[in-house]
């Protein structure tokens, strides 16, 4: 994962989105300009924000998948070493990945280790970085991105994550023009959106669960706060509660 440039995501992966905070932000998002329209003006998440908050690369090769006539079951066997028995297309359940590749055997060969790492990277992309509205599934196209670890290390992951989040914010904003709420229908890396908000609007940052004091952090230290979190520690109200 370090070779692929994805290891900095691990401390932030347990964070879950706060529905109240995300809904409030989507209400201010304008797809035409990809900015939040606030009473004081326009603001947005920039590539510099992504690089600072997540340490993901924002300069490098474009994250593009060249999909041809793939035999998805054969690809799973080649890159993961196994495939679901009921795989009927190009989508795989994240729950199956987590159950099947739950613990790396102590005597694992280098090939098996790479297969487990690919499975984890696939669940990370489908469940965190490029999460969609499928309800726990991930497209196997992402598996091709970590077929070659050295090539993966040249990708501008941060730019891809931000552009994907922009698109999902736009979709959600358009949805809210016909509905009063998101209804849990939101894709993209919600934790990035939350951490950016805490950094730029300090009154929304987490409160210490025991002291009730506002948690203020330098941008580079948010991962250290997140690393001790369990998803259940984050409440769906403002301001967000956290245990540190």
From TrEMBL:
Domain of life: Eukaryota
Aminotransferase-like plant mobile domain location: 15-224
GO BP terms, alphabetized: meristem maintenance
Pfam families per the UniProt record, alphabetical: PMD (PF10536)
PANTHER family (alphabetical): PROTEIN MAIN-LIKE 2, PROTEIN MAINTENANCE OF MERISTEMS-LIKE
Protein name according to UniProt: Aminotransferase-like plant mobile domain-containing protein
Originating organism: Linum tenue
């Amino acid at each position: 994962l370090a070779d692929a440039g994805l290891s900095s995501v691990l401390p932030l992966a347990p964070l879950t989105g706060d529905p109240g905070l995300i809904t409030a932000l989507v209400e201010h998002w304008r797809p035409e300009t990809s900015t939040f329209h606030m009473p004081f003006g326009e603001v947005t998440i920039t590539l510099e924000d992504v690089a600072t908050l997540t340490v993901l690369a924002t300069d490098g090769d474009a994250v593009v998948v060249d999909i041809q006539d793939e035999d998805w079951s054969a690809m799973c066997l080649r890159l993961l070493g196994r495939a679901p028995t009921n795989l009927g297309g190009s989508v795989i359940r994240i729950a199956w990945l987590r159950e099947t590749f739950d613990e790396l055997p102590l005597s694992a060969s280098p090939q098996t280790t790479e297969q487990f790492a690919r499975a984890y990277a696939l669940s990370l992309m489908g469940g965190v970085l490029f999460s969609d509205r499928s309800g726990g599934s991930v497209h196997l196209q992402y598996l091709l991105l970590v077929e070659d670890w050295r090539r993966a290390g040249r990708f501008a992951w941060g730019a891809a994550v931000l552009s994907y989040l922009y698109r999902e914010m736009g979709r959600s904003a358009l949805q809210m023009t016909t509905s009063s709420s998101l209804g849990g229908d939101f894709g993209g890396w919600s934790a990035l959106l939350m951490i950016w908000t805490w950094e730029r609007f300090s009154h929304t940052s987490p409160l210490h669960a025991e002291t009730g004091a506002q948690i203020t952090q330098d941008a580079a230290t948010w991962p250290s706060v997140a690393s001790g979190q369990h998803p259940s520690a984050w409440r769906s109200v403002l301001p967000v509660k956290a245990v540190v």
